[in-house]
UniProtKB/TrEMBL annotation, chain A:
Residue ranges constituting the OmpR/PhoB-type domain according to the UniProt record: 127-221
Segments of the chain annotated as binding DNA: 127-221
Record domain Response regulatory: where: 4-117
Positions of post-translational 4-aspartylphosphate modification: 53
Biological process (GO), any one: regulation of DNA-templated transcription
Keywords: DNA-binding, Phosphoprotein, Transcription, Transcription regulation, Two-component regulatory system
Matching Gene3D superfamilies: 3.40.50.2300, 6.10.250.690, Winged helix-like DNA-binding domain superfamily/Winged helix DNA-binding domain
Single GO cellular component term: cytosol
Family matches, as NCBIfam families: resp_reg_CseB
PANTHER family named among the record's database cross-references: DNA-BINDING DUAL MASTER TRANSCRIPTIONAL REGULATOR RPAA, REGULATOR OF RPOS
Protein name: Response regulator
A molecular-function term among this protein's GO annotations: phosphorelay response regulator activity
TrEMBL record, chain B:
GO MF assignments: ATP binding; phosphorelay sensor kinase activity
Domain HAMP: 142-191
CDD domains registered for this protein in UniProt: HisKA
GO cellular component, one term: plasma membrane
Membrane topology label: Multi-pass membrane protein
Keywords recorded for this protein, A-Z: ATP-binding, Cell membrane, Kinase, Membrane, Nucleotide-binding, Phosphoprotein, Transferase, Transmembrane, Transmembrane helix, Two-component regulatory system
This protein's name: histidine kinase
SUPFAM superfamilies tied to this protein: ATPase domain of HSP90 chaperone/DNA topoisomerase II/histidine kinase, HAMP domain-like, Homodimeric domain of signal transducing histidine kinase
Cellular location(s): Cell membrane
Domain Histidine kinase residues, every copy: 199-388
Protein's UniProt keywords contain Transmembrane: yes
Organism: Herbidospora solisilvae
Catalysis: reaction(s): ATP + protein L-histidine = ADP + protein N-phospho-L-histidine
Predominant localisation class: membrane
């Protein structure tokens, strides 16, 4: 069955043209023109990925993102026409996994969507459970436990944690993380790394991921 | 700043000079009045001795000429202070008939002891007052330093910096308040400009995105190619203008990481999708912002292709990157004034908006790199980026 994308965008031309373009790539697209309708459609269920504009009438993209994250770990890709720090940072803080700046080619959108969906599907198994203090990562079942309690991580957070868990105690710089987790080259925005690490820390304990000033991050063994 | 030029030491020196002058004046006055008092007492003693005709008075010896000249009519007397030998002074009193002299050595020694005490006391007070003045000057000094520090931070782009000088109605509070007002005004202006840029970005990019995706949906054909080409040009132009206005607003800051320049330059040229021969000497690594360096290099390579001719050579040596083409070279105006937006020297350099090099120069400023434009003696334009 094909992948279903929920597109929330107030500009009619973008909504229709992006919808048509994604359908050509084989996605099923449902769309909404404002935040509240988008939230309703999302709650109706059946969507594998959310594509949100930041500036929306009524409930804006950031608010919508936050509301969705209260109940769901579905991958969220934000589209921002402004691309300035405030939009991007608040979007990522609200729980978005990635962002694109408008105008984006359909090919770029599709590449980002594919990368996000890849993160959401389980990695090939065969790896034993990894234990770091009171943190337990099961790379096969994609489950994470802190002090015996299961915590739910969004796909990007999970991919980031798996990347750390695969290199425990080793400092990973932002470029490496951008490349391995987000599939970016040099042109990536390293703020997505910082903000995702912040979100990960909130869930697995702040001191578990250590900042190495000027270099990057490492997982404390 | 040399330490002695610090305001603190200037104030201390001023206090020292002022105290010195006061001590000197008071010392001189006391010295004079004491001398006069002891002279007048000496005179009285000498006259009393003269009139009492006491037998104990020593024989004064021959009358000095200066005293003899003072003696007037008979029955009157004259006195004279004899300091011919400065260490053994005498007070003479004489009538026409006889003379006596009184030893003034004791008074002189008292006077000298007084002078010594005054000097010692003055030095003692100076030794106390100068350090106290220096300490007291430290307070305004510290406030002034804070104002200077804040002004420098503002100049370096931290527009949130405030002196928070607060209380006191003196000149330092005045200048601190002026610096704060200046920073606030700059901050407001920058915010307005950033707001404007962001709004313009939104207003331009939203319809442009509709245009881009719609153009992709058009059935293939010659007309579609034309539309897509123009949409592409419009898109690059909008992005470049937004980038320039962000650079102009001065709101950009570099995010530095270690970048292996050789591999980086290769990747960058590859991403730009243009042919260029990359030569790397050694294995140079620079700490810089890779996204901005990527913009600089890509713009230089694109510019070399658009306005120069192949082969385009990119050379990485240490932390210097050179982009060279084999075209007619940069126009004179660019060499003289640097890149100017919308000025390309179109006749000899072909089409373009002149934004690429302006952006390269602006981004270079943000990452603290120096960028130079020159023409090779053998022909061709040479752009040089020096990192760090």
């Amino acid at each position: 069955m094909s992948v279903s994308v929920l597109l929330v965008e107030d500009d009619e031309v973008i909504r229709r043209s992006v919808g048509m373009a994604l359908e050509r790539y084989g996605y099923r697209v449902a769309s909404a023109a404002d935040g509240l309708t988008g939230l309703e459609r999302f709650h109706a269920g059946g969507h594998d990925l959310l594509l949100l504009d930041v500036m929306l009438p009524g409930l804006d993209g950031i608010g919508l993102c936050r509301r969705v994250r209260e109940t769901s770990l579905v991958p969220i890709l934000m589209m921002s026409a402004r691309g300035d720090a405030l939009d991007v940072v608040s979007g990522l803080e609200a729980g978005a996994d990635d962002y694109v700046v408008k105008p984006a080619d359909t090919s770029v959108l599709v590449a980002r969507i594919r990368a996000l969906l890849r993160r959401a599907t389980p990695a090939p198994g065969g790896t034993p459970r990894l234990v770091f203090g009171d943190l337990t990562v099961d790379p096969e079942a994609l489950e994470v436990y802190v002090a015996g309690e299961q915590v739910s991580l969004a796909p990007t957070e999970l991919r980031l944690l798996l990347e750390f868990a695969a290199n425990p105690g080793i400092v990973l710089d932002r470029q490496t993380l951008l490349h391995n987790v987000w599939d970016y080259g040099w042109d990536g925005d390293s703020r997505v790394v910082d903000l995702c690490v912040q979100r990960l820390r909130r869930k697995i304990g702040a001191d578990r991921v250590e900042t190495v000033r000027g270099f990057g991050y490492k997982l404390r063994r | 700043m040399a330490p002695w030029r610090s305001l603190r030491w200037q104030i201390a020196a001023l206090v020292a000079v002022a105290s010195g002058v006061v001590a000197l004046a008071v010392g001189l006055l006391v010295h004079r009045s004491t001398l006069e008092r002891s002279l007048s007492l000496g005179r009285d003693r000498a006259v009393t001795a003269l009139l009492a005709d006491s037998p104990g008075a020593a024989d004064p010896g021959p009358l000095p000429a200066a005293l003899a000249a003072r003696i007037g009519a008979p029955g009157t007397y004259a006195t004279w202070y004899d300091d011919r030998d400065p260490d053994v002074p005498w007070m003479w009193a004489a009538t026409g008939a006889r003379a006596v002299k009184i030893d003034m050595g004791g008074d002189l020694r008292n006077l000298r002891a007084l002078d010594r005490h005054i000097v010692l006391a003055s030095l003692g007070v100076l030794g106390l007052v100068v350090p106290l003045a220096a300490l007291a000057a430290e307070l305004p000094n510290r406030r002034l330093r804070r104002v200077a520090r804040t002004a420098r931070r503002v100049a370096d782009g931290d527009l949130e910096a405030r002196t928070s000088a607060g209380r006191g109605g003196d000149e330092i509070t005045g200048i601190a308040a002026a610096v704060d007002t200046m920073a606030a005004a700059l901050h407001d202006r920058l915010r307005v400009e950033q707001r404007f840029t962001a709004d313009v970005a939104h207003e331009l990019r939203t319809p442009l995105m509709g245009l881009v995706t719609s153009a992709e949906l058009l059935p293939e054909g010659e007309a579609t190619d034309l539309v897509r080409d123009r949409v592409g040009v419009l898109r690059v132009l909008v992005e470049n203008l937004l980038e320039i206005s962000r650079l102009d607003a001065g709101a950009e800051s570099a995010e530095r990481v270690e970048v292996p320049l050789g591999r980086f330059a290769g990747d960058c040229v590859h991403r730009a999708g243009l042919a260029a021969e990359v030569t790397v000497h050694g294995d140079p690594v620079a700490v810089t912002d890779p996204r901005r360096l990527d913009r600089i290099l890509a713009n230089l390579v694109v510019n070399a292709h658009r306005h120069g001719s192949a082969p385009v050579e990119v050379q990485v040596e240490d932390t210097t990157i050179t982009v060279r083409d084999h075209g007619p070279g940069f126009p004179e105006s660019l060499l003289a004034e640097g890149p100017q937006r919308f000025r390309t020297g179109a006749s000899e350099r072909g089409r373009g908006h002149g934004l690429g090099l302006t952006i390269a120069a602006g981004q270079a400023r943000v990452i603290g790199a120096r960028i130079g434009f020159a023409n090779d003696p053998d022909g061709g334009a040479v752009a040089t980026v020096r990192l760090s």
